[in-house]
Amino acid sequence: EDQVTQSPEALRLQEGESSSLNCSYTVSGLRGLFWYRQDPGKGPEFLFTLYSAGEEKEKERLKATLTKKESFLHITAPKPEDSATYLCAVGAYSGAGSYQLTFGKGTKLSVIP
Amino acid sequence: NAGVTQTPKFQVLKTGQSMTLQCAQDMNHEYMSWYRQDPGMGLRLIHYSVGAGITDQGEVPNGYNVSRSTTEDFPLRLLSAAPSQTSVYFCASSYSPQGAGEQYFGPGTRLTVT
């Protein structure tokens, strides 16, 4: 069974204090690791896709990296507007041949001015 | 483009009632899916569709039906609502026919079953 574990569950940072969120996974035949951002009361918003170990993607203050067992979302000099829940998901083909995403429970990030 | 739209935003049902959650997308995406999100749990896949006329079950399909008569619409039907179906429901679509890749989510429907 595919599993995705995110840590920490919650993280409070001072504005400008850099940190990283972790997503560890066990999956048979990874076909993509995805990061989403979710604001309260809204649907998840896509951030990054990573396919291969060693791959990195960047967007503004966020950088996502991937190894064979985990992914990190690095946040550099965060601002209050970066406060949100960050979701990690892994994509894989099931035994029946269908592609499905398995989501972690998320990390709730709060950036304090 | 409106993206993925969902109606209603909020709904309260009594146990045993039925209803349909609506989902539509205007991006000509082949792949559409329904998830539920509960506190302390990740998003869980209910049903998905890889194109008009084709649907399949996800991780938690019991108590829900879907159909896909057009590319744009993917309604989710609750047959006989139960308190365990109290949740936030999200519809999503993807440009990839298999559902791989970036998924676009709707704003969600918050359902309470009493």
Biggest sheet features of chain B: 7 strands, mixed
Structural class of the secondary elements of chain A?
mainly beta
Strand content of the residues of chain B, in percent?
over 45%
Enumerate the spans of chain B where pLDDT stays under 50 for 5 or more consecutive residues. none
Q: What composes the largest sheet of chain A? A: 6 strands, mixed
Number of strands of chain A: 11
Radius of gyration of chain A: 14 Å
List the helices and strands and how they pair.
The complex is a heterodimer of chains A (113) and B (114).
Chain A: E1 3-7, E2 10-14, E3 19-26, E4 30-38, E5 45-50, E6 56-59, E7 62-66, E8 70-75, E9 84-93, E10 99-103, E11 107-112
Parallel strand pairs in A: 2-11
Antiparallel strand pairs in A: 1-3, 3-8, 4-5, 4-9, 6-7, 7-8, 9-10, 9-11
Chain B: E1 4-7, E2 10-13, E3 19-25, E4 31-37, E5 44-51, E6 54-57, E7 64-66, E8 76-78, E9 87-94, E10 103-105, E11 109-113
Parallel strand pairs in B: 2-11
Antiparallel strand pairs in B: 1-3, 3-8, 4-5, 4-9, 5-6, 7-8, 9-10, 9-11
In short:
The complex is a heterodimer of chains A (113) and B (114). Chain A has strands spanning 3-7, 10-14, 19-26, 30-38, 45-50, 56-59, 62-66, 70-75, 84-93, 99-103, 107-112. Chain A is mainly β.
Describe this structure in words.
Chain A is globular. Chain A is an all-beta fold and 113 residues long. Chain A is built from no helices and eleven strands. The model of chain A has no long low-confidence stretch (mean pLDDT 94). In chain A, the strands form two sheets. In chain A, strands 2, 4, 5, 9, 10 and 11 form a six-stranded mixed sheet that branches. In chain A, strands 1-3-8-7-6 form a five-stranded antiparallel sheet, with no helix packed on it. In chain A, β7 and β8 form a beta hairpin. The N and C termini of chain A lie far apart (41 Å). By secondary structure, chain B is an all-beta fold. In chain B, 0% of the residues lie in helices and 49% in strands. Chain B has no helices and eleven strands. In chain B, strands 2, 4, 5, 6, 9, 10 and 11 form a seven-stranded mixed sheet that branches. Chain B has a four-stranded antiparallel sheet with strand order 1-3-8-7, with no helix packed on it. The radius of gyration of chain B is 13 Å and the shape is globular. Chain B starts with a strand and ends with a strand. Chains A and B meet through β4, β5, β9 and β10 of A and β5 and β10 of B.
